[in-house]
Amino acid sequence: MNTIFVSDQFWAPVLLSLQVSIAATIISFLLGVVAAWRMSSASFPGKSLLETLFLLPLVLPPSIIGLILLVLLGHHSWIGQAVETLFHISFIFHPLGAIVAAAVVSFPLVYQTLKAGFQSVDKDFKEAARTQGANEWQVLKFILLPLSFRSLQAAFILGFARALGEFGATMMVAGNIPGRTQTIPTAIYFAVDAGNLPLAWALACSTILLSFLLLSLSTRLKRD
């Protein structure tokens, strides 16, 4: 068992999962800040429909999300063709595909947490800033973000934890190429399929421990 923790079979998916999760969380966090900021204060026709679209990855099966991403980012889509032409890379069977998949599934949690944080800020602070001549970007930068800092931290942690555990959509878009696109969840699946239970348990326990620590930290931040 000890040899597993020093083998590439263990560390390659762990390191790749960390890299993918960090990149995906940064993307979903930045998009979530903008979306939550606008949705927490704006009122416009179709707002409920748009918010439902934002939250849809929470309830859709990962296989459906993966299928949608394949259609949107695959070799026959204009996005996929543009990326291949400009950067000579493909989303399919590439770590970039895993990042996009993880960002999509983590976005709803990030968005919900950020929106709740922004809505908890007293409206009087925002109105006072506006009466002093602050524009909306300045209100976001100097009022909303500092006063909802705990929610920002919790959103990032929850997004990272969700991205770390993503399996279905990642499997369909990025596949399972050891050392290239094999993340912890896909490595566990194929380790079990191959009868390598010690490796599967080692990967599972490391993920459980990390997720437990992240969720504990998130709960503490929300409570403080």
UniProtKB/TrEMBL annotation:
Superkingdom of origin: Bacteria
Alphabetical list of SUPFAM superfamilies matching this protein: MetI-like
Coiled-coil region list: none
Pfam families attached to this UniProt entry: BPD_transp_1
Domain ABC transmembrane type-1: 14-218
Annotated transmembrane regions: 12-37, 49-74, 86-111, 139-161, 199-217
Compartment annotation: Cell membrane
InterPro entries according to UniProt: ABC_perm_TupB-like (IPR049783), MetI-like (IPR000515), MetI-like_sf (IPR035906), ModB_ABC (IPR011867)
CDD domains: TM_PBP2
Keyword tags: Cell membrane, Membrane, Molybdenum, Transmembrane, Transmembrane helix, Transport
Topological type in the membrane: Multi-pass membrane protein
The protein's role, per its UniProt record: Part of the binding-protein-dependent transport system for molybdenum; probably responsible for the translocation of the substrate across the membrane.
Family under the similarity heading: Belongs to the binding-protein-dependent transport system permease family. CysTW subfamily.
PANTHER family in the record: MOLYBDENUM TRANSPORT SYSTEM PERMEASE PROTEIN MODB
Protein's UniProt name: Molybdenum transport system permease
Species name: Paenibacillus puldeungensis
Classification of source organism: Bacteria, Bacillati, Bacillota, Bacilli, Bacillales
